[in-house]
Amino acid sequence: MTTRRAATPRVTLVDVAKLATVDKAIVSRVINEDPALVIRQETRDRVIDAIRTLGYRPNIAARSLRTAKAGTLGLVIPDFANPVYAEIITGAESAALDRGHVLVTGSTSGSRNGMDRYLELLGQGRVDGLLLAGPTSAREHQKLQSLGLPWMMVNRRDTGDHHRYVILDDAHAAKLAVEHLLSLGHRRIGHVAGPTGADTAKRRAAGYRQAMKTAGITVRPADVARGDYTSGGGAEAMGSLLANAEKSGTPTAVFVANVAMAVGVLDTLRRAGLRVPADVSVVAVHDLPLAEHLNPPLTTVRMPLQQLGGRAVELLLSRAPEEQVTEVVSTATELVLRESTAPPRI
Amino acid sequence: MTTRRAATPRVTLVDVAKLATVDKAIVSRVINEDPALVIRQETRDRVIDAIRTLGYRPNIAARSLRTAKAGTLGLVIPDFANPVYAEIITGAESAALDRGHVLVTGSTSGSRNGMDRYLELLGQGRVDGLLLAGPTSAREHQKLQSLGLPWMMVNRRDTGDHHRYVILDDAHAAKLAVEHLLSLGHRRIGHVAGPTGADTAKRRAAGYRQAMKTAGITVRPADVARGDYTSGGGAEAMGSLLANAEKSGTPTAVFVANVAMAVGVLDTLRRAGLRVPADVSVVAVHDLPLAEHLNPPLTTVRMPLQQLGGRAVELLLSRAPEEQVTEVVSTATELVLRESTAPPRI
DNA sequence: ATCGGTCGTTCAATCGTTTGACCGACAGTA
DNA sequence: TACTGTCGGTCAAACGATTGAACGACCGAT
Fold this sequence. Notes:
The structure is a homodimer. Chain A is an alpha/beta fold. The first copy, chain A, folds into 3 domains: 13-58, 434 Repressor (Amino-terminal Domain), CATH 1.10.260.40; 70-168 and 306-329, Rossmann fold, CATH 3.40.50.2300; 170-303, Rossmann fold (3-Layer(aba) Sandwich), CATH 3.40.50.2300. Helix content of chain A is 44%, strand content 16%. The first copy, chain A, has helices at residues 13-20, 24-31, 41-54, 60-67, 83-98, 114-122, 138-147, 170-183, 199-214, 231-248, 259-271, 289-292, 305-318; strands spanning 72-77, 102-107, 129-133, 151-154, 164-168, 189-193, 224-226, 253-256, 281-285, 299-302, 325-329, 334-336. A 6-stranded parallel beta sheet of chain A has the order 2-1-3-4-5-11, with helices on both faces. In chain A, helix 1 crosses helix 3, helix 8 packs parallel to helix 9 and helix 10 (231-248) crosses helix 11 (259-271). Chain A is elongated. Chain A starts with 12 loop residues before the first helix and ends in a 10-residue tail after the last strand. At the A-B interface, helix 4, helix 5, strand 2, helix 6 and helix 11 of A face helix 4, helix 5, strand 2, helix 6 and helix 11 of B. The structure holds a DNA duplex.
């Protein structure tokens, strides 16, 4: 039998106060554990009982109005379908929850000017702070600034003078990947890089070049191609690498800047009749669940994406809005060995 | 040069009213486009100018307090990493935005009792309504009920007496898949089903049986195995299908209840030395971007997941809380032909 | 000249919490 | 006895927007 819910007349502080025969101020202070409150244990119990029997829940709107805090954080990502952001969200959400905050995650992919819409909607006191993952423009930085909200970038290093960001150790990840290939005996190692706009791509490319240089190997321009971080882009980029190779031979291994592109790379290689890892070894950045089930299972570099998201929330909440915050999360950046890498033939 | 932001003293209605030399009531009514407001165009312009020059933004907390509406909707999913939910979120978010609402998406995977935490956090007037995708318990239904919020289930049909849900036409999707296999000439068609708890799994299994029956084929119990909608579960289920087959021969085709499990199924087949589609054809439900890049590219049945999410939001916002709402979204449920299905050998 | 009816606008109560200020009672001290 | 503190609370003013009610001015009709 269902209890028919009459339009419940919300139970408020005064209801509780009446039942406990105290002033509502007491109730409020009990709830918020005001350290300045001195009160008999007996009274406190009466209040707590009253709260319980009435099933009282503080009204968030009223509280927000009074305290000028929303208890909510915003996270703007490009696209929910991208598993990299799924990981970041997961970490951020959990950290926010632990600090009693709710996380509003919005994607900009939906509409043409998704970011604007979100800045509009969230910049009215709806959130206490904003986390931006993914690309942003200078104009958006302007707008953000004018909202007067604390905000920072996640997995992106902004180009302006707003030095607040958390990123991963992309260069190190790239180095791990390339050194793995080197240690297997590869000398001719190609790179499917990310888009020019993404600074993560720059750092991974830099790590790749660095590792190659350290090994005393010159990188041929023809062995580096650029994709847009999607599997389609990866497929294309690998295609152009193979095309370039017609005259000068094929790399025996490829370091791919992210897993999504690696999926396309595997595709292209298969269609070209090249076996992985027998003919070409492939290693990519980001150890997403998917990697394990590709054909062949993909060797990757695990990045602490969840920690990244979590750390971003922590920093956003703990640091003063005007304070500079630049942090690199580098825990547990490590190679995950699977079946897509092997020594080169001969 | 950055404008240094002094701690901005929020600009409020009265500031605007003063500048426009009208009462704040006017400003409020102008903003909310109160149809009952009769006002000279000149005055209206003055107000609008004032709003613009001051950069006024209404304070959400105050508005929520007064109107008892949050302008926010909640969506609770099991896990962000599951691309099925990514699609639902995307659709829901876009629909919410179109209606001037913000969507708070929370996952229950984070902590042991994630659902409870969310019901706690969101059930304080933070959201105007709640969408539940994924499994829920009777106890949670109880709690939900006690929050006095409108809520409904998405892609799940609740078992209780709360008849508010939007689902997809799972039986039809299954039929499309199986009929495709039948038309290729397969007679022995296995099924990797979803978990008993999920009613989507039940409907897909029912559709499978229905289609088989219509074709006059008896389904052997050994040809149906159950997985938990993850790729690991799919791999296992396919394993047991192969084990069962030792005595009675292998199915020439498998209908898999979702893409995640199909990934595992392909894995198991590959390890068993069976080629897809030469030895076994595979077709799965849900046409996620991933499907295109599996090896081989997977034939699927596309389901309108985004529409599902969008429709859920629409219904939640438009229907009275006590009204029953049961809808099946079935637009664009169609077969997507790729390379994982082919006629059986001989 | 008076009345009624729009038009254009103002008044003020209200939503539910938080929080600084204030206050009475009682105990201990000088 | 008067004074000073602590204890255990109460009072009331915010926070910023919404909205029903009221109000003065003006116009046309009687």
